[in-house]
Amino acid sequence: MLTTQRKKLLLARLAAEGQLVAKALAQELGTSEDTIRRDLRDLAAEGLLQRVHGGALPASAAMGDLAVREQVSTADKVALGRFGASLVEPGQVVILDGGTTALQVARHLAPGLRATVVTHSPTVAIELAQHAGVEILLLGGRLFRHSMVNVGADVIAAASRLRADLFFLGVTGVHPDAGLSTGDAEEAAVKRALHARAAETVVLASPEKLMAASPFVVAALPEISLLAVARETPARVTRALLAGGVQLRKV
């Protein structure tokens, strides 16, 4: 089998089954594991899959910059944002991550809400400014333009001085085995620091993030308090996620 044919087969199998196991594929195709691993490396370099130990998972379609992500799953993000906003209670200290779904949470906070919201996203902070009763704490650092969030040692140091009730964590990959992941190492470090400072962490995951993986792990699925997904999420996907040990709600 030619290399191009084999790679097309790998991508078709990944789309159909949701994962690839290098050893099993090598046996099936009568080739070496090294050959399969080389194919997977090439496909990962093209952004077509995410390599994991022993094989590969689908690459997250949520890896584009903020402008690109604003065009993806817009109705689902509105519903998820509205649900997230409903979880915020008066007087709470809430950490709100960056990203398009976080913007929807900010937009749907109750008009008279009095609470403190901490964020490392200037974009989210500007949106929160529309809520007169919300005290806004903006964590400063180096601006990571891809996601429009501040990252670096200063953000992590500031996070260590927080004690929050709730953290809305944004990720680009949600998978029962690969966990919660994102595409940048420094951004992942900030997310881990914020997650560690909240009593509860909630992930609002639009469809393109589910059963996909990104390079840098933030947390295992069972470590969060709740995963909210779109109402139309297929049953096979919700079953797989629930098997991963997470509390899940369709909204």
Summarize the helices and strands and which ones pair or pack.
Blueprint: H1 3-17, E1 20-21, H2 22-29, H3 33-45, E2 50-52, E3 55-57, H4 66-69, H5 74-86, E4 93-96, H6 100-107, E5 115-119, H7 122-128, E6 134-138, E7 142-144, E8 149-151, H8 153-159, E9 164-169, E10 173-175, E11 179-182, H9 185-196, E12 198-205, E13 216-219, E14 226-229, H10 235-243, E15 248-250
Parallel strand pairs: 4-5, 4-9, 5-6, 9-12, 12-14, 14-15
Antiparallel strand pairs: 1-3, 2-3, 7-8, 10-11, 11-13
Helix pairs in contact: 2-3, 5-6, 6-7
Distance between the termini: 46 Å
Q: Give the C-level CATH assignment of the largest domain.
A: Alpha Beta
- Spatial order of the strands forming the largest sheet: 6-5-4-9-12-14-15
CATH architectural group of the largest domain = 3-Layer(aba) Sandwich
Low-confidence stretches: none
Estimated structural class: alpha/beta
Number of helices: 10
- Average pLDDT metric: 92
Please name the CATH topology of the largest domain: Rossmann fold
Helix content: 25-40%
Radius of gyration: 19 Å
Strand content: 15-25%
Q: SSE order in H/E notation?
A: HEHHEEHHEHEHEEEHEEEHEEEHE
Main sheet specs: 7 strands, parallel
Number of strands: 15
How many domain regions? 2
Tell me, what's the shape? elongated
Organism: Scleromatobacter humisilvae
Domain HTH deoR-type: 3-58
Protein name: DeoR/GlpR family DNA-binding transcription regulator
GO molecular function: DNA binding; DNA-binding transcription factor activity
